[in-house]
Amino acid sequence: MEFTAEMIAGLLEGEVVGDKEAKVHTVSSIEEGHEGSLAYLTNLKYEPYLYTTGASIVLTDRSFVPSQPVRATLVKVESAAAAVLKLLEMYQAAKPRRKGIARLASVSPEARLGEECYAGDFAVIEEGAQIGDRCQIYPQAYVGRGVRIGDDTILYPGAKVYEGCRIGSRCIVHAGAVIGADGFGFAPNAEGGFDKIPQLGNVVIEDDVEIGANTCIDRAKTDSTVIRRGVKLDNLIQIGHNVQVGENTVSSAQTGIAGTSRVGRNCFLAGQVGIADHVTVGDRVRIGSKAGVDKSIPDGEVRMGYPALPGLQFHRASAVYKNLPELSKRVDALEKRMRTLTEE
Predict the structure, then answer these.
(1) Residue 100 within any structural domain of the chain
(2) pLDDT in tens, 116-170
(3) Secondary structure, 3-state, 247-316
(4) What residues are annotated to the active site?
């Protein structure tokens, strides 16, 4: 499907600078732009590419003024970043939804599927499962006994939802994610080994949550591991048993949260953050990449480093750490000088 610059400007309430009849049929980054593509300038760091891009149309902020001639047609909007998001959402909504139960899907007669659902080849839906309207269960996904899933939720290929877990509406669970595996619970025994502690709880995921590929969320020992509304989890994240993650919290890849910890609302956890067990992280907390959190954090704080320190303290400590080799040489020189003076 092709769109002209004039059509795009009409959709986005923008203005055209250049050829109103310029046409595009795909989207590209500004540095990889080519004829027929729509690119965008949302970060001025990439402005030099604007003057060399092959894209036919480029979205920019209304306030942006080029410093050189631009070959592409510009569509100026209030916020290029917001406009790009709107276009991508419109494109996603226009994609046809899959419907129907594939011949090779295994759906228990005792499961209940809502209207306009899709289950792909080799998807398995066990007895007692209840799946809402317009859900998409892709090939090789697994929905265990008694699982409940709300409307418009997607399980991508190979996603697994164990027995008794709950997933809300408009959630996305990416390929390979595991919801409801046993929590890591073992008790030492008299023989020097370990006895497994039964994990009898479940996982509850509220509405509008997205879970990345190969992320694992363990079921609770008792009660529930809870992921609140609007949480976004990247790939390769481990959430331990009985953890609770607050509304609209975001975590980048390879984060690990140990059992029974609490993370508040509107937090941001960068990549490879580690949170120890029985720790409470307050609301609106920001934790830098590779930070190791072993103590509770009050609301609104910033933590960085290992062990995690308040932001300013971390930067001061880092400044000292970087200078340690030079400081060591100076200390050695002073000690040598002191020995010489003592001998004299």
Answers:
(1) no
(2) 999 999 999 999 999 999 999 999 999 999 999 999 999 999 999 999 999 999 9
(3) CCCEECCCCEECCCCEECCCCEECCCCEECCCCEECCCCEECCCCEECCCECCCCEEECCCCEEHHHHHH
(4) 241
Q: How many other CB atoms are found less than 10 A from the CB of residue 67?
A: 9
Q: How far apart are the first and last CA of the chain?
A: 90
Whole-Å CA distances, 16 to 10, 32, 44, 176: 10, 22, 20, 44
Query: Please, which residues bridge with residue 101 across strands?
Result: 119
| Domain termination site, one of 94, 119, 146 | 94
Q: What is the number of structural domains in the chain?
A: 3
SS3 content of the chain, % helix, strand, coil (to 5): 20, 30, 55
Q: Is residue 99 part of a domain?
A: no
Is 82 domain-assigned? Answer: yes
Where would I find the beta strands (DSSP E) of 142-209? 142-143, 148-149, 154-155, 160-161, 166-167, 172-173, 178-181, 186-188, 194-196, 202-205
> Domain range spanning residue 170?
105-313
User: Tens digit of pLDDT for each residue in 208-217?
Assistant: 999 999 999 9
Q: Domain check: are 251 and 268 in the same one?
A: yes
Residue type, 124: V
What pTM value is reported for the model? 0.86
Do 309 and 334 lie in one domain? The reply is no
CATH number at residue 50: 3.40.1390.10
**162-198 pLDDT tens trace:** 999 999 999 999 999 999 999 999 999 999 999 999 9
**Cβ neighbourhood burial of 201 (10 Å; 0-12, 13-18, 19+):** buried
How many other C-beta atoms lie within 10 A of the C-beta of residue 320?
Answer: 9
The reply to whether 253 falls in a domain is yes
